[in-house]
Specification:
It is built from five helices and eleven strands, in the order E-E-E-H-E-E-H-E-H-E-E-H-E-E-H-E. It is an alpha+beta fold.
Length: 204
């Protein structure tokens, strides 16, 4: 099976809302690249909603959608984080995290009611979001002498590489983003540039 180098995520944060028998469920969806990204968002919500009873969340990461985490934050096991995650699965989204903040309305919803509430709040947030397709990119740093500038810049232009950062002096350095499917082709060209040193940084 060929490696997939595209995935579906959301373009920017979005919000959703669901109410049931006095309880209010506020959903916040975020595009993320790491688990720490989502935990930062969760920590921001707690002071914003100090009277909320629960801050439940789920996330998915990686192009093969293999990395996920859920947190019920005190709700009965399987009634909050899992329905949020299942909604992300059904929409085939990754590199995304959803936090659902619950204000208890005084009436117990029961297990089916909770599952439906967390699912529905998440659905509403995703319905408000713009779904986009992104490519998986490897990030490399290219170090080279100033005399090789034209050779390097021609490869960057021809292969349509994204420039993340650059520093030009007698010794130059450019950090570029290379689509996963074209890494071998691009590296083959760069390795032919005299004095160039190519270093892999990370995959995004």
């Amino acid at each position: 099976m060929l490696f997939e180098d595209t995935y579906r995520t959301i373009e920017k944060p979005s919000e959703g809302l669901f109410r049931d028998r006095g309880s209010k469920f506020l959903a916040f969806a975020y595009p993320i690249n790491t688990e720490a990204d989502l935990k930062d968002k969760v920590s921001l919500h707690k002071p914003l909603h100090p009277k909320a009873n629960h801050h439940c969340w789920a996330m998915r990461l990686s192009v093969d959608r293999s990395v996920f985490r859920i947190n019920d934050d005190g709700e009965p096991s399987g009634t909050a984080g899992r329905p949020i995650l299942n909604t992300l699965l059904s929409h085939d989204l990754t590199n995304i995290g959803v936090v659902v903040v619950r204000y208890f309305g005084g009436t117990l919803l029961g297990v089916p009611g909770l599952i439906n509430a967390y699912k529905s709040a998440t659905e509403d947030a995703l319905n408000q979001a713009v779904i986009i397709e992104k490519t998986v990119n490897d990030i490399y740093t290219i170090e080279f002498e100033y005399l090789q500038m034209n050779d390097v810049m021609k490869i960057i232009k021809d292969d349509n590489l994204g420039i993340i950062s650059q520093a030009f002096d007698n010794n130059c350095s450019i950090q570029v983003s290379v689509r996963k499917m074209q890494v071998n082709q691009t590296l083959s060209k760069l390795n032919k540039v005299n004095s160039a040193v190519i270093k892999y940084n990370y995959t995004l």
